[in-house]
């Protein structure tokens, strides 16, 4: 993540958007284990659970400095009883209730004073939505109602040219369906409904629509180029970017139908908005040599090399 922060700085990014899974939670994170003070005195599991999220702030978020950081919830943030949505909201209230998100929430509904794990903001004609797809019961009725109400407003607003929907688990029936909202009946039903809503915004309201997800630990462009969506409304532009440090996954069957797919990489997706509202997306691969010196000093070259060479389930 500090390497990705350097990429964001070099490209003068307006903000960074994290699509969930902050720490492993179900086991120790290797980077925490390899911090010098942890090597000298290994953590107990209870100690790890207590420091995992504060360490995410200290070791990852802080690397972005003054670059605004938008934060999403992932399934690893909902490993009950270890972690819950309520704990996530409390720990990350500064980001989930930032001045930008608070102001937009009250513009959307002046009575809505409750912070949520899903949110919406508009920046220079682009409406961004973070949708909480982190667990099997999502999207629930309340979230879908919230999304459709705000999407209707954005669809009717000529100042909004573009809709970008981000989430953790990808909407159903993608090339990555085996590791997506297809994992639950509610996910399938509600996810297809949201996809259809986005199609309507594109086809009837004539907005440019883009869909982003993570969850699967590889990079893929064109995730909705599947037989299901070709036969059921059309293919939306969609990406999976799960390349910010977690163990890398093998590519799924059908990945040859994507515009681009690669694993065993780290990096981020750089989005450049044109005056028309069109967004150009470019995957910025992170090389081992791009890791900041401060990280090399803290963790050592051997461990950094292990992350690039060995942190994978996709053996080649």
Q: What is the C-alpha radius of gyration, as a whole number of Å?
A: 19 Å
Total beta strand runs:
11
Sheet with the most strands: spatial strand order: 3-4-5-6-8-7-9
**Sheet/helix structural class:** alpha/beta
Largest sheet: 7 strands, mixed
Distance between the termini: 25 Å
Low-confidence blocks of residues: none
The ordered string of helix (H) and strand (E) elements is HEHHHEHHHEEHEHEEHEEEEHH
Fraction of residues in β-strands: 15-25%
Any overview of this molecule?
- By secondary structure, this protein is α/β, with parallel strands linked by helices.
- The protein has twelve helices and eleven strands.
- The chain has helices at 2-10, 30-33, 36-40, 45-59, 85-91, 93-96, 99-108, 141-156, 185-203, 227-231, 293-299, 301-309, and strands at 16-18, 69-71, 119-123, 126-131, 162-167, 208-213, 219-221, 238-241, 260-262, 266-273, 279-286.
- Strands 3-4-5-6-8-7-9 form a seven-stranded mixed sheet. Strands 1-2 form a two-stranded parallel sheet. Strands 10-11 form a two-stranded antiparallel sheet.
- α8 (141-156) runs parallel beside α9 and α11 (293-299) packs across α12.
- It is globular.
């Amino acid at each position: 993540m500090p390497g990705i922060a350097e990429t964001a700085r070099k490209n003068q990014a307006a903000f960074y958007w994290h699509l969930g899974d902050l720490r492993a939670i179900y086991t120790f994170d290797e980077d925490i284990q390899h911090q010098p003070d942890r090597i000298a005195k290994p953590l107990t599991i209870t100690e790890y659970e207590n420091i995992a999220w504060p360490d995410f702030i200290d070791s990852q978020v802080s690397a972005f400095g003054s670059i605004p950081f938008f934060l999403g919830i992932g399934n690893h943030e909902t490993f009950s009883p270890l972690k819950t949505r309520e704990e996530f909201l409390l720990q990350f209230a500064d980001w989930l209730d930032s001045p930008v998100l608070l102001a937009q929430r009250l513009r959307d509904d002046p009575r809505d004073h409750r912070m949520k794990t899903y949110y919406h903001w508009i920046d220079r004609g682009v409406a961004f939505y973070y949708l909480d797809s982190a667990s099997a019961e999502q999207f629930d009725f309340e979230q879908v109602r919230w999304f459709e109400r705000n999407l209707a407003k954005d669809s009717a607003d000529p100042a909004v040219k573009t809709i970008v929907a981000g989430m953790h688990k990808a909407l159903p029936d993608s090339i990555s369906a085996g590791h997506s909202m297809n994992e639950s009946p509610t996910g399938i039903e509600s996810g297809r409904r949201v996809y259809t809503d986005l199609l309507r915004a594109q086809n009837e309201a004539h907005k440019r629509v883009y869909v982003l997800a993570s969850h699967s630990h590889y990079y893929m462009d064109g995730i909705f180029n599947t037989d299901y969506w070709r036969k059921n409304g059309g293919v939306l532009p969609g990406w999976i970017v799960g390349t910010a440090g977690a163990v890398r996954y093998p590519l799924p069957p059908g990945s040859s139908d994507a515009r681009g797919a690669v694993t065993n990489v780290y990096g981020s997706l750089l989005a450049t908005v044109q005056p028309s509202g069109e967004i150009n997306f470019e995957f910025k691969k992170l090389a081992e040599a791009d890791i900041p010196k401060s990280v090399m000093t803290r963790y050592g070259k051997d461990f950094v090399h292990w992350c690039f060479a060995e942190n994978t389930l996709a053996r080649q």
